[in-house]
């Protein structure tokens, strides 16, 4: 009787006890499917449109299995690798066939050797020149992330070295895997984006009638493979810092009492935005200055001097779109710059570089070309000889790699040459003890500018703090300081920015999919055996009783 009741209880409540027993089995299982998780800040690759052409990666969210650089095979995999191991060919293959890419940066990116730097420059250029459909993220060095990369790579090596198919299968089941997850909001266009340019001037003094004008220009933004990693210490932090020092120096000269140092030139200072997106700030500023009905002092400019990347080496190149005529103001300045360099710093070479503007190109080489197109005499001073030098756009351009001594020397050279030209001094120095280049002032600006990334999309928000600081500095020394904003046209925008520039990478330690399959089969077989045992319990009990009775009879 009791056996029948016991049998009926199990049969009647079978669905209910399975719901209880199955979770218990999973909880007490010695293998946890998700053993641990790690969290890292990550920085998304560039994503913007310029003149209707898409640049950078177009996706942001990731939820894929992590695989090594040599172990991935399908779009279901996220390639996890160190930057030094990734090549241009690897990247091109990954962007076409993999699901995502997560790159760990070197521990100290400013201490790479020449070969490693060249490798990174080529890789960055390959990343941003065209559209990439998969999400690409950069993560700063972390010992924990390095361990994860090593484990992902070691798992592949272990499987490859297996002596038999059975051993390979066992290793694939027993190995730990990782799931890469980046939760991201939708990639909306920044509808309120604007590129700000700041200008002010020092009025000249002359009794001869019209006062000529000199314009000094530098773009303040930076560029690299990832916006949040683009600090631009040299390109173009150095150009901005030299301009700010020139503002301070000539403000003192133009206002110093007791000395006849008020120059016979108006000096216009322009900090332009959007330099790294084809000099959109200068373009908008020129339109406002030259196409307006009000007169502008820039219309009578003697020359426009643009400053770009001036702390790279011991050379200064004067880039022009058209060689200056003999006797022109820009020609006189060039000669003065060469003379000043020979007198003060003989190791510094000054050379002229002529490059015609190709109107068929979508991207201009140097900022002075924006002014040359509008028929203004202009040139760019730079330590780089070629506008295609990849050092203009790299995440390696950090404060640690900036040569401040070289920056100070080039600042003194440009300031002294400009002062000699403005005041017509042929012998001796204009700058002296009372008014001279201040190294501490330069170092202060280096520390401030290089402490924050300055990619254009990061500075396009309303009331940006950096723009406010630069404007306040102009207000301190210059007159009629104004801000000009370049806004993309709604119908045919020259540029567009997108919202997601960073995220959080969650790395979960998981078992591979084949382990889940084997575990599921084992649980099904186990529960099936239990079910059959309960379903046929009376038969098994009778069989056990029969065997027990037979043994007793035989023993008697």
UniProtKB/TrEMBL annotation:
Record's GO cellular component terms: endoplasmic reticulum membrane
Localization: Endoplasmic reticulum membrane
One Gene Ontology term from the biological process aspect of the record: regulation of signal transduction
Membrane topology according to the record: Single-pass membrane protein
Family note: Belongs to the nicastrin family.
Principal subcellular localisation of the protein: endoplasmic reticulum
Protein name: Nicalin
Xref: Pfam families: Peptidase_M28
Superkingdom field: Eukaryota
Keywords carried by this UniProt record: Endoplasmic reticulum, Glycoprotein, Membrane, Signal, Transmembrane, Transmembrane helix
Domain Peptidase M28, first and last residues per copy: 199-375
CDD domains the UniProt entry points to: M28_nicalin_like
InterPro entries per UniProt: Nicalin, Peptidase_M28
Bilayer-crossing regions: 12-31, 513-534
Native species: Phaedon cochleariae
């Amino acid at each position: 009787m009791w056996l029948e009741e016991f049998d009926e209880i199990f049969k009647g409540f079978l669905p209910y006890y399975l719901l209880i027993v199955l979770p218990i089995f999973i909880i007490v299982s010695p293998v946890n499917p998700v053993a641990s998780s790690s969290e890292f800040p990550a920085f998304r690759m560039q994503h913007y449109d310029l003149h209707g052409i898409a640049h950078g990666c177009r996706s942001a969210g990731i939820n894929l299995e992590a695989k090594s650089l040599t172990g991935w095979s399908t779009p279901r995999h996220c390639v996890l690798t160190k930057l030094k191991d990734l090549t241009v060919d690897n990247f091109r293959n990954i962007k076409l066939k993999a699901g995502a890419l997560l790159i760990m940066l070197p521990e100290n990116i400013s201490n790479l050797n020449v070969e490693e730097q060249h490798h990174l420059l080529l890789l960055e250029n390959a990343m941003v020149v065209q559209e990439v459909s998969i999400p690409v993220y950069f993560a700063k060095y972390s010992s924990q992330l390095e361990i994860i990369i090593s484990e992902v790579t070691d798992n592949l090596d272990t499987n490859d070295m297996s002596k038999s198919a059975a051993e390979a299968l066992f290793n694939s089941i027993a190995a730990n895997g990782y799931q890469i997850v980046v939760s991201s909001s939708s990639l909306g266009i920044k509808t309120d984006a604007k590129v700000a340019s700041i200008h002010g001037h020092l009025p000249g003094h002359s009794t001869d009638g019209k006062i000529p004008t000199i314009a000094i220009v530098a773009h303040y933004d930076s560029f690299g493979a990832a916006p949040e990693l683009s600090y631009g210490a040299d390109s173009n932090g150095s150009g901005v810092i030299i301009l700010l020092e020139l503002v301070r120096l000539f403000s003192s000269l133009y206002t110093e009492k007791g000395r006849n140092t008020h120059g016979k030139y108006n000096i216009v200072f322009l900090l332009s935005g959007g330099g790294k997106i084809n000099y959109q700030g200068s373009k908008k500023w020129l339109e406002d200055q030259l196409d307006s009905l009000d007169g502008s002092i820039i219309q009578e400019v003697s020359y426009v001097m643009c400053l770009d990347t001036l702390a790279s080496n011991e050379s200064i190149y004067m880039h022009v779109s058209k060689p200056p005529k003999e006797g022109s103001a820009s020609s006189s300045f060039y000669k003065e710059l060469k003379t000043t360099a020979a007198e003060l710093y003989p190791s510094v070479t000054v050379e002229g570089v002529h490059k015609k503007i190709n109107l068929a190109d979508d991207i201009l080489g140097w900022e002075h070309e924006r002014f040359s197109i509008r028929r203004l005499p202009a040139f760019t001073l730079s330590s780089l000889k070629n506008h295609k030098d990849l050092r203009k756009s790299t995440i390696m351009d950090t404060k640690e790699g900036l040569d401040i001594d070289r920056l100070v020397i080039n600042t003194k050279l440009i300031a002294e040459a400009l002062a000699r030209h403005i005041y017509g001094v042929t012998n001796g120095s204009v700058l002296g003890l009372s008014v001279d280049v201040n190294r501490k002032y330069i170092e202060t600006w280096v520390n401030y500018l290089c402490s924050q990334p300055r990619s254009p999309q990061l500075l396009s928000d309303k009331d940006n703090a950096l723009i406010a600081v630069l404007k306040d500095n102009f207000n301190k020394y210059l007159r009629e300081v104004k801000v000009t904003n370049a806004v993309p046209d709604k119908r045919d925008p020259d540029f567009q920015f997108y919202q997601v520039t960073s995220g959080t990478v969650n790395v979960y330690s998981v078992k591979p999919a084949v382990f889940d399959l084997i575990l599921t089969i084992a649980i099904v077989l186990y529960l099936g055996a239990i079910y059959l045992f309960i379903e046929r319990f009376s038969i098994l009990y009778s069989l056990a009783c029969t065997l027990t009775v037979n043994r007793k009879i035989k023993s008697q």
